[in-house]
Please model this.
Amino acid sequence: MDVGQAFESLLGQTGFANFTWGEAAMVAIGCVLLFLAIVKKYEPLLLIPIAIGVIFVNIPVADMMGDASPFHLVYKYGIKSGLFPLIIFMGVGALTDFGPLLSNPKTMLLGAAAQFGIFGTLIGALALGYIPGLGIDFTLAEAASIGIIGGADGPTSIYTATRLAPHLLGPIAVAAYSYMALVPLIQPPIMRALTTKKERMVRMPNIDSVPKSVKILFPLMVMLSCAILIPSAMPLIGMLMLGNLFRECGVVDRLLGSAQNEIINISTIFLGIGVGGTMTAKSFLSPSTLGIFLLGLIAFSVGTATGVLFGKLMCKLSGGKVNPLIGAAGVSAVPMAARVVQKVGREYDPDNYLLMHAMGPNVAGVIGSAVAAGVLIAILGA
Model:
């Protein structure tokens, strides 16, 4: 082999020589995700690993996510098994204060109302199959997995997809985390459209402190109730409450610190890379994937809207003591949705502090989306 042949052979093995238009488009999508994460600061802890995974899997020849790649093992044992979402749920529980919810249990209804988007979108996904010429025909299990996006809960969306529609894991996960990241853009227009200026300015009474004993008993009672009523939701609910028990019991500071930091951070890195690694050009650039993103946006918007509308109902029934804006926090994007409620409320009254009031429905939404996922898995996963 002369020098020219050797150079030609080497050139033929480069990524540039083997790129397809689809792979180039997916690398561009990965770069867009990096832009949103780094420049716009939209959920960078999640979007950066996902974006890198997208770029990895679409580099030709490298085979970064092939069966022989270590990253394939990350996907197989960490994501497909459901391990990483459960570990992240434990970390979320360790970082979450259920005090605002326990102080005002009525706000749990707002978290429940926001889950309407899940089941409404499930029906919408099935309805797409009846539109002639669209070429989209989701099964009931696929529609249920897509609907969970409406809960704005990435780990729950991933866990549900691995159980019901593993072939749709990539687009479902990216859609869920993308809409979580875009909460500050999506929710405010919906909140303003459905409330009056007077309602947005409602001040709520201060939140009472909750006894430590109640905070310790709460995760135990939730686990017991879940084990009896909805065993299929126990993996998610159980890990969430385990992390919260670490937080509230006060005797396992080392475990709490690990759950809040090292464990959840490591799992987030590998989860993001593994999820992004499922987004090949072949699987992603299709009508069904575009349908998933559209349905995910609808699901999230409907969940926000139903939460706000139920907040308006509670405002009326309470004689104007509940600010309807906190209903938007009923989706599970913790604590981003609660911060958006605070920001929108202060636009109309700079001295109105809604953050802790919004945390009640926000953490209730985490429980609600996990319960909804458990119900769907129990019905469809057999």
